[in-house]
Amino acid sequence: MITTTECLDLKLVHCPVPQVDLSPSLLARLLLERFLEEHQGSISSKQVLNSMLREPSLIPDVQLARHVEQCTINDCCYGPLVDCIKHAIGQEHEEILREKLRERNLSFVDENQLRAKGYDKTPDIILEVPIAVEGHIVHWIESKASFGDEHSHRTYLNEQFWSYWNRFGPGLVIYWYGFIAELDCQRDRGILLKDCFPSDIVTLGHSPDQC
């Protein structure tokens, strides 16, 4: 069995990704798992592993720590650095959504307020007074700072959107970077897709608001 030290001696970390068929961050994770198993005699917890990947200085082997850091920096798709960037972009678009709602004087409760009330799985926004968008009632809004492809949308439907629908009723999902048009096929069942904040909002007793 090849050891972590031998992996480093062979400079696997510096191999082009196609040569090892792994993303840099995944390669770093596998090497770190192997290193910890060799030195501790057991598999480390996911929490310990993730902490070291986020903060390589916690890794007792200086050479491995340096390689893990380089893998994280050089990976443009996965890993803790990319996760931080995605989180920041997501937060930015959630704030854009809140600002749009305030501009239209729409009362709402956001995810943080809902969690403070004891809700575990919630959409980003619950509207205190429902609205209508393109003839569809909307009770909640979910912000996604990503492109809605078939795989991700199916995952979101199963893990998030249908749960929101069951608990709060019909809602709206905004994919700020667009989505595959054919995925917007659940409108009659209560899940509407848009790629921007809607301009044709109807509130109770009001005419449509135009941007």
UniProtKB/TrEMBL annotation:
Keyword Nucleus attached: yes
Keywords for this protein: Cytoplasm, Nucleus
TM helices/strands, residue ranges: none
Subcellular location, record wording: Cytoplasm; Nucleus
Entry's Gene Ontology BP terms: erythrocyte differentiation
Organism domain of life: Eukaryota
Name by which UniProt lists this protein: CDAN1-interacting nuclease 1
Phylogenetic lineage: Eukaryota, Metazoa, Chordata, Craniata, Vertebrata
Organism: Ameiurus melas (Black bullhead)
GO terms for cellular component: cytoplasm; nucleus
